[in-house]
Amino acid sequence: xxxxxxxxxxxxxxxxxxxxxxxxxxxxxxxxxxxxxxxxxxxxxxxxxxxxxxxxxxxxxxxxxxxxxxxxxxxxxxxxxxxxxxxxxxxxxxxxxxxxxxxxxxxxxxxxxxxxxxxxxxxxxxxxxxxxxxxxxxxxxxxxxxxxxxxxxxxxxxxxxxxxxxxxxxxxxxxxxxxxxxxxxxxxxxxxxxxxxxxxxxxxxxxxxxxxxxxxxxxxxxxx
Length: 224
What we know:
CATH class of the largest domain: Mainly Beta
Helix content: under 10%
Low-confidence stretches: none
Largest sheet: 4 strands, antiparallel
């Protein structure tokens, strides 16, 4: 929904190696990395970002057993195909900048119009969690090597800035407040403890460096 209008999108093109969408109502072009309108009557508008987990079916189903699945029995089955990510592609290497390999996987995070890339490999080495400050706001970047899931959340919970660590409970990776022992799923949902409120999602997306840096050339890289 934008300005009260329900839009219908289709993929139309690649810009700097990243797919672009067009809505059928206004003909406006939108990029999918941050939902900004890049051309057309709604240029300058922005779609709200929602938390989207990249995870395994088993891990998702354990938390959401009533989930339904889009059927493969469809006239558009030919469009269902594997798309490799994190692998070198010559046609993508010409976009973005050279601070990281073009197809390096990062968690791209935005806070208060400030951008930072967190290499998934670096998050793994850090134990799955980096407590950070971005755009003057305390955030946590979290990564679960078992599922490939990575998300960013505010570290301000109930008016208190907390410090997170990654822990496991019954085989599931969880975020834990090191002071209170409160726990959350990587989807930001509370599990136990005195701070049992959902975590505030910080706009973040798993993407390849070439696309993130092409659209956000001002982005910093955590640890550099």
